[in-house]
Amino acid sequence: QKEVEQDPGPLSVPEGAIVSLNCTYSNSAFQYFMWYRQYSRKGPELLMYTYSSGNKEDGRFTAQVDKSSKYISLFIRDSQPSDSATYLCAMIEWNDNAGNMLTFGGGTRLMVKP
Amino acid sequence: DARVTQTPRHKVTEMGQEVTMRCQPILGHNTVFWYRQTMMQGLELLAYFRNRAPLDDSGMPKDRFSAEMPDATLATLKIQPSEPRDSAVYFCASGPSGRFTDTQYFGPGTRLTVL
């Protein structure tokens, strides 16, 4: 079993829909959680990070963490065609030598249709 | 706008050939990571450096892969000999290492195809 599980999709939604992306993890040592967005043929880029249970909002994006259930979510409101990308959750464990060590989920491919 | 650069962006080679991928981290970042991304395995960490010193390369097939940082502005990943199963996108990422909220900044990747 992988440390981080993420539904690969693809997830296809109409423009304006609310999108829910989810990850589960098994390692209690993970302390911070990040969401990366990866456009086709590009490198991943940080979208949001959070470290505590609860919600964090940034514009149309809301990250939610439930540490007791080892479950994180990313919600996208009013989805746009420009949101079409692969979304990767990343679990962070602190390493004294290298700082933040990231363990990635497999990514969910999202397609927002006009 | 500082960013991680990688060369080449695409590489097609034949099995058995040597492949060298290069990465220029963001100036001032002291940690460098190499990842491999495939459809089946997702993003896998291959190796990482801090202040140019290799800290962990347990994710790499030791017999054929090697990673080095000859200086602070250059990281290299070499495969010799290459095999078809090495076909993947290889990403380099760099980052500071002082805070929990520090993130890694990824380059555009090198898309490797081994025939």
Compact description:
With 114 residues, chain A is mostly beta strands. Chain A has strands at residues 4-6, 11-14, 19-25, 32-38, 45-50, 54-58, 61-66, 71-76, 85-95, 99-104, 108-113. The model of chain A has no long low-confidence stretch (mean pLDDT 91).
Q: Describe it for me?
A:
The complex is a heterodimer of chains A (114) and B (115). Chain A is 0% helix and 59% strand. Chain A has 114 residues and is an all-beta fold. Chain A has one domain: Immunoglobulin-like, CATH 2.60.40. The termini of chain A are far apart. The mean pLDDT of chain A is 91. Chain B is built from no helices and 11 strands. In chain B, strand 4 (31-38) and strand 5 form a beta hairpin. The mean pLDDT of chain B is 92.
Protein topology:
The complex is a heterodimer of chains A (114) and B (115).
Chain A: E1 4-6, E2 11-14, E3 19-25, E4 32-38, E5 45-50, E6 54-58, E7 61-66, E8 71-76, E9 85-95, E10 99-104, E11 108-113
Parallel strand pairs in A: 2-11
Antiparallel strand pairs in A: 1-3, 3-8, 4-5, 4-9, 6-7, 7-8, 9-10, 9-11
Chain B: E1 5-7, E2 10-13, E3 19-24, E4 31-38, E5 42-50, E6 53-56, E7 65-71, E8 74-79, E9 88-95, E10 105-106, E11 110-114
Parallel strand pairs in B: 2-11
Antiparallel strand pairs in B: 1-3, 3-8, 4-5, 4-9, 5-6, 7-8, 9-10, 9-11
